[in-house]
What we know:
Layout: E1 2-6, E2 11-16, H1 22-29, E3 33-36, H2 39-45, E4 50-54, H3 72-78, H4 80-83, E5 91-97, E6 100-105, H5 110-120, E7 125-126
Parallel strand pairs: 2-7
Antiparallel strand pairs: 1-2, 1-5, 3-4, 4-5, 5-6
Amino acid sequence: MKTIKITADNKISIVDVDFSNNRAIMDAMGGPVEVVTTNELYDFFKCPVLMMLDKNSYKPKDVNGFCPSANAVASFLYGYVKTGIPVLGDVILAQPAGGRIENLEGVGELEEKMQMLMQRFSFLETVQKGW
């Protein structure tokens, strides 16, 4: 199922992920994932959207209050402004299928959601993938 991936180096793309296969999800993310939902995600997209991120991809700021490898978009959608916890690494967006968080699918209206993200975060660059 096609969905949106946002990398820590500010690339946005549409990727194909089999959400019914944990191995496929881990392959797409490069390791074990955690699914998170935040008020910021809902407020931004105006619908239930979840973020899949590397289980080790968020942490408090370093001793100087700085985290140079943070994924700016994912950190914003995770609630960095309130929590001070940045998200590191890549993220994949998903939606609950049939209203159940246990069943995930790619985000609907891909092009519209990509445009929303690119308008809000003008530094994002699109990456074309061969499907």
